[in-house]
Amino acid sequence: MTTMANEFSPVVKLSNISKVYGFINALKKINITINEGETVGLVGNNGAGKSTLLKVISLLVKPTYGKIELFGSELKEDIHLFKKEIGILLSNPFFYEDMTGRENLEFFLRMNKRSPNPEETVDEIVAQNNLKLYIDRPTHELSTGMIKKLEIIRAILPKFPKLLLLDEPFSGLDVENKQFLNNLITQRKSNKTVILCSHDFNSVNNLCSKVFYLEKGKILRSLVPTEFSYFLNKPPELNQKETSA
Fold first, then answer.
1. Domain boundaries, given as residue ranges, for the chain
2. How far apart are CA 131 and CA 1, in angstroms?
């Protein structure tokens, strides 16, 4: 099922965003607009700039140049108000290994002031998402798939955010939890926006209303659903020629 774009207002607008690390241009003059309710993919090989772009959108990384607008407003000095509306799953997230899954989630809610009653919020999310079998075990005892599901749950606490950012979300998931993530994305409210980052086009193309193809810090092509299969079935060198045109 593909989540279709709608006529809602822009949630993310990037104008000439560049990010430089020393002599490395990680992002080069990125210009994109993502509307409310869209599911958008950022696709490209490792090192293409996908994760850096996601971190810029999440306000974890400040761009070297360019302008960011979120939820229809330019960023202000107090970016905390913007961050409260964003959930993010990073490719290398962190859990305290000697704490249980429950304790980690409650700690996250307290530290980020996202719930007046963290215990009650976590109890609800445990009941809703079938986590009872392992939520009270130390996280160092959990499998990769269990940890990944907890990471996804943490990204949407205390409720599905206005903007959800997912970096390689399908990596490490078994079939059951891939379906869980698919359902989470496709069954959300229509005014919630999701950005998926992946090196594997096949893992995101069925979910997205738009895909940006990145290479060497640049967006080389923007694709809509009618172009997905055509792009997938072409030889890599032909795709390269088209995206460079």
1. 1-85+163-245, 98-160
2. 26
pLDDT tens profile 139-198:
999 988 899 999 999 999 999 999 999 999 988 888 888 999 999 999 999 999 999 998
Q: Calculate the alpha carbon distances from 208 to 55, 124, 125 in Å.
A: 20, 29, 26
Q: Residue 154 corresponds to which amino acid?
A: R
Per residue in 119-134, pLDDT (tens digit) is 999 999 999 988 999 9
CB 157 within 8 A of CB 104: no
Q: What's the CA angle centered on 162, arms 160 and 168, to 5 degrees?
A: 70
Quick check: 127 and 120 in contact, CB under 8 A? no
- For domain 1-85+163-245, the CATH class is alpha beta
The Cα 100–Cα 40 span in angstroms is 33
- Give the other-Cβ count within 10 Å of 199's Cβ: 15
- Please give the model's pTM, rounded to 2 decimal places: 0.87
Name the packing angle between helices 144-155 and 101-111 (round to 10°). Answer: 30
H helical segments located in the chain: 50-58, 80-83, 101-111, 118-128, 144-155, 175-186, 225-232, 236-244
8 Å CB contact between 192 and 164: yes
